[in-house]
MOB1A kinase
Amino acid sequence: AKGLTGNVFPLVSGSRSSKTFKPKKNIPEGSHQYELLKHAEATLGSGNLRQAVMLPEGEDLNEWIAVNTVDFFNQINMLYGTITEFCTEASCPVMSAGPRYEYHWADGTNIKKPIKCSAPKYIDYLMTWVQDQLDDETLFPSKIGVPFPKNFMSVAKTILKRLFRVYAHIYHQHFDSVMRLQEEAHLNTSFKHFIFFVQEFNLIDRRELAPLQELIEKLGSKDR
């Protein structure tokens, strides 16, 4: 397997199997990035999210951001995978995060002019686009000593900005389904981790976070 690509695993949420939305990205075992991921998981277990997102001593910032970006892609993938049946052309004809925010898709290469499309279509474009970036060894090198490109930080920022939109859509349009599936604790923990991470390294512009500003403030105030 090249890069950070992995196999497709059936995802099990509780006892209920949920279909995988996109293939899970695997960080190769035994690699330094795998060790970093394990470190991240261990510090998350401590319950102190602010501390868990900090750059571990002596580590490379690009590598830390790369490992966490892959992890957030997998988390969002899994969360969205549990509600795909409720996010349809009919239920979500536009990609929105509440009545005030609507997103149009463009990737700058295949689709240069932003197009209006349904949420499932938009999220499919978005996740496929992210996956292509994560698979690109020149952008996300998985081998030790292979340098990150000069534009890595701006690539990572764009990926995270777009992944945020999936959280925003789930919260605004599908939270009732999330609650019915008893996934809200999982969603909230994942989102809180994501927000603390992007805040720690200033990766998403405040304006982009506006659709979930109240929730972000609430999560921050309950901070431990």
Summary: Residues 1-18 have pLDDT under 50 and may be disordered.
